[in-house]
Recover the amino acids of this structure.
């Protein structure tokens, strides 16, 4: 095993996207990527369908659970439950800018309350033996730039937090939608680089607008790790290069091999009552940029949702690509 940071390459927590079916496919592509769940609120775990929110396949490991919440007791209880389920890390969401999140007092609005965040992280650290990390923005609203960021980070480092995943954009809690908050505030990678320079003892992972492994390599000269969200989802085949390019290990399988390797998983999941399109929706981008990609996508889109659709739909879609190739 190489001595790289476990956070050298991560996939982002993506609401409605990075569910367990998506992560199973991502893990086939890369053995070394650190995979993150969608954000799950403390309330959903404590009062909702725990099986639905926490279930994963052992083939996905290691997986980090991202929590949304701010009450130390609830966070500690959820962290304990997650550790029992087998998660490898707990990550606290201090970056999501949606209105729903603000009203629940979690997400990006917590950057204005570093002591509240520190109390939550401290309670979780006391409750579990797995790492507890935080994902946040470089700032919110009119918070002064770098001093505001360092004040937040120092409060978390003071209670022993070591790993900071930093989305290199501000979040504007008033006036911008969550989608606009991912695109309109300008990226400021230099501020994240400065954070690593000023706090070399901390693990700093950079996130936001990273689209290729070449960009990852450039960032890794300045920080400890990179996190990809949309690029990993929309062009998942790039994950097959992660282990070789960033870890010096064997390359992952190609898109066609991944489809073949997904078939036994699909059969298992369908047998337990899952619907085919809930799995295949994450596979649509597998052949992005390759001959036959559109036919593959169209066949799955038009057929996977039909009643009784099974693995043969996926096999037919794959045959359309191999014909085109």
């Amino acid at each position: 095993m190489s001595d790289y940071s476990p956070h050298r390459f991560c996939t982002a927590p993506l609401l409605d996207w990075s569910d367990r079916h998506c992560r199973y496919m991502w893990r086939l592509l890369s053995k070394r990527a650190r995979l993150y769940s969608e954000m799950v609120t403390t309330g959903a775990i404590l009062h909702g369908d725990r099986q639905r929110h926490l279930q994963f396949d052992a083939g996905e490991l290691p997986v980090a659970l991202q929590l949304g919440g701010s009450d130390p007791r609830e966070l500690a209880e959820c962290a304990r439950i997650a550790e029992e389920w087998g998660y490898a890390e707990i990550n606290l969401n201090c970056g999501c800018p949606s209105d729903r999140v603000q009203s629940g007092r979690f997400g990006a609005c917590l950057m204005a309350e570093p002591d509240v965040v520190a109390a939550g992280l401290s309670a979780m650290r006391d409750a579990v033996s797995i790492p507890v990390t935080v994902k946040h923005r470089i700032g919110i609203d009119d918070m002064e730039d770098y001093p505001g960021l360092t004040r937040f980070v120092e409060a978390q480092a003071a209670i022993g937090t070591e790993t900071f995943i930093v989305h290199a954009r501000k979040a504007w809690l008033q006036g911008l939608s969550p989608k606009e908050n991912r695109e309109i505030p300008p990226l400021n990678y230099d501020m994240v680089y400065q954070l690593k320079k000023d706090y070399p003892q901390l693990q700093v992972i950079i996130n936001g607008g990273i689209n290729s492994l070449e960009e990852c390599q450039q960032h890794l000269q300045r920080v400890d790790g990179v996190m990809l969200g949309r690029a990993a989802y929309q062009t998942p085949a790039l994950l097959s290069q992660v282990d070789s390019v960033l870890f010096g290990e064997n390359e992952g399988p190609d898109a066609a091999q991944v489809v073949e390797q997904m078939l036994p998983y699909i059969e298992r999941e369908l047998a337990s009552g899952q619907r085919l399109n809930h799995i295949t929706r994450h596979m649509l981008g597998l052949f992005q940029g390759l001959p036959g990609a559109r036919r593959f996508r169209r066949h799955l889109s038009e057929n996977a949702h039909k009643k009784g659709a099974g693995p043969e739909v996926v096999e037919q879609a794959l045959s359309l690509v191999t014909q085109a190739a």
Residues 9-247 form a domain with the TIM Barrel fold (CATH 3.20.20.70). The mean pLDDT is 94. Residues 73 and 123 are 7 Å apart (CA to CA).
